[in-house]
Design a protein that fits this description.
- It is a single chain.
- By secondary structure, the chain is an alpha/beta fold.
- The chain has a domain of 123 residues: Isoleucyl-tRNA Synthetase, Domain 1.
- The chain is built from 18 helices and 15 strands.
- α1 links the parallel β1 and β2.
- α13 crosses α15 and α17 packs antiparallel against α18.
- It is elongated, with a radius of gyration of 26 Å.
- Ligand ME8 binds next to β1, α1, α7 and β12.
Length: 478
């Protein structure tokens, strides 16, 4: 692999970012940082952004008493700000109201049209604005959208349709053989199940929605917001705009998202790409959807957690850590927000923070800040941990790191360097501390992608084995 192009979904700006958005974006950031170390920063492109068209956003703008553009500008800024505060190292922030995106989408749609994969039809259906998609009667619960608990709007208009059915067999085969990876395995089966149930051509334009990218051959219509949003992955890589750039980055190495939008990414998107004659993404990974303290996160329940509040309470790295360690990535789970303080104190203040402070204090005190670089026996395999990151096993990797922290602590307790010092056995003291320092360096190295500031503080303090310093307290007890 020579380059790595990773994306998050582009989030709707109808509301402010919450920890659901943060969860995916932090995970993508860990991968981007990891691959920058492996491939060099110039060979990694990490993209996130905002989905700014469609009804959902215009309705929110209206409520806020603003013109759509003014509203989405304001909202997009909030996302960028939060990502900066969370130390998200994105390379590109894709906003779908960017004129370049319009040009790229027009080019893409025109290609499908000229190929004969678009036809005119009449659409009659039930539309859920919350999902920005049509629902079938079968999907409704008590006549309502099960996710948004609202009655969908009955809707009939002239639309353009995409010949999805023409590409279904090809896409299905690529997923089956793993040429297009859909992960985890449970999600792959779910997607293959959709093919079995049968899928129909779908409408890719709207006559009644003005806030969008105009259909190039019929400017009275706009491109359906989902079809246009998916194309952010190609347009912001330069499709139809900057050929050399597009050549370098496409296809994407990983599209990351939660399972709620897997169908769009694993069925519609590959089919659209195939129709446009473009390569398909290499890997699609859909992680689980989580609840908070056992309940669905919702405005009505008032349990939506804002990442900014978490950063204020715990700091950036602790927020990243607390979110990624709640449950295995890829599975559904529960964010136990009521136990954040307990976990913070146990793992960060008491665990890692205490270990760093303990070791560096002893080195400064007993060996004047200097230890010899010795070979250490490692019970852990750094390469395996790196592989774990590439497999998106974030909570497992962090668990292993915390096992290393506990083990390093235990070794210090067993050898009691303070007693050795009292007995004047300074060579032994130095040996025990040197080993602890080197383990701590390994820990700092693995944490680089997860907790960048913490890792830097550790690695800086231990950079020169002749002049080890004690860093400031990493995590204050809460
Ligand atoms: O769907 N658990 O945007 P969106 C886990 N604009 N992840 C969660 C989550 C939760 N409870 N809540 C949100 C859209 N997410 C479209 C995407 S892409 C071309 C267009 C995360 O703002 C997760 O990544 O509704 C999920 O897939 C995404 O937010 C949905 O973001």
């Amino acid at each position: 692999m020579k380059k790595y192009y990773i994306t998050t979904p582009i989030y709707y700006v109808n509301d402010v970012p919450h920890i659901g958005h943060a969860y995916t974006t932090i995970a993508a950031d860990v991968l981007a940082r990891h691959y920058r170390k492996k491939l060099g920063a110039e060979n990694v492109r990490f993209m996130t952004g905002t989905d700014e068209h469609g009804k959902k956003n215009t309705e929110a703008a209206e409520k806020a008493g603003l013109e759509p553009q003014a509203f989405v500008d304001e909202q997009a800024e909030k996302f960028e700000e939060i990502w900066t505060n969370l130390n998200i190292s994105y390379d590109v922030f894709a906003r779908t109201t960017n004129p370049d995106h319009y040009a790229s989408v027009s080019r893409f749609m025109q290609t499908l049209y000229e190929k004969g994969d678009i036809y005119e039809g009449n659409y009659k259906g039930l539309y859920c604005v919350g999902c920005e998609k049509f629902l079938t009667e079968k999907e409704l619960v008590d006549g309502k959208c099960p996710d948004h608990r609202t009655v969908p709007q009955a809707f009939e208009e002239k639309n353009y349709f995409f010949r999805l059915t023409k590409y279904l067999d090809d896409v299905r085969k690529l997923i089956e053989t793993g040429e297009l990876l859909v992960e985890p395995a449970s999600r792959k089966s779910e997607v293959l199940g959709l093919f079995k149930q049968g899928l129909e051509d779908f409408s890719v334009s709207r006559e009644s929605v003005a806030w969008g990218v105009p259909v190039p051959w019929d400017e009275k219509q706009t491109v359906y917001v989902w079809v246009e949003a998916l194309q952010n992955y190609t347009s912001f890589a330069g499709f139809g705009l900057r050929d050399e750039e597009f050549e370098k980055w496409w296809p994407a190495d990983l599209h990351l998202m939660a399972k709620d939008i897997l169908k769009f990414h694993a069925v519609y998107w590959p089919a659209l790409l195939a129709a446009a004659g473009l390569k398909l993404p290499k890997r699609i990974f859909a992680h689980g959807f989580f609840t908070v303290n056992g309940q669905k996160m919702s405005k009505t329940l008032g349990n939506v957690i804002n990442p900014t509040d978490m950063i204020e309470q715990f700091g950036v790295d602790a927020t990243r850590y607390l979110l990624l360690t709640q449950f295995p990535f890829g599975q559904d789970g529960d964010i136990q927000a009521s136990r954040f303080v307990e976990k913070y104190n146990a793992d960060l203040a008491g665990g890692l923070g205490n270990l760093v402070s303990r070791i560096t204090s002893m080195v400064v005190r007993y060996t004047a800040g200097a230890v010899k670089d010795r070979r250490i026996t490692r019970e852990y395999n750094l390469g395996e941990l790196e592989q774990g990151i590439q497999n998106l096993q974030f909570s497992e990797v962090l668990e292993s790191v915390w096992a290393m922290i506990a083990e390093t602590n235990r070794k210090i307790n067993d050898h009691e360097p303070w007693k050795l010092a009292e007995a004047g056995k300074m060579k032994d003291v130095e040996k025990v501390l040197a080993e602890a320092v080197l383990r701590l360096r390994d820990i700092g190295t693995i944490l680089e992608s997860f907790m960048p500031d913490t890792s830097e503080a550790i690695l800086t303090a231990l950079a020169d084995l002749e002049k080890i310093t004690k860093p400031e307290n990493l995590f204050d007890r809460k």
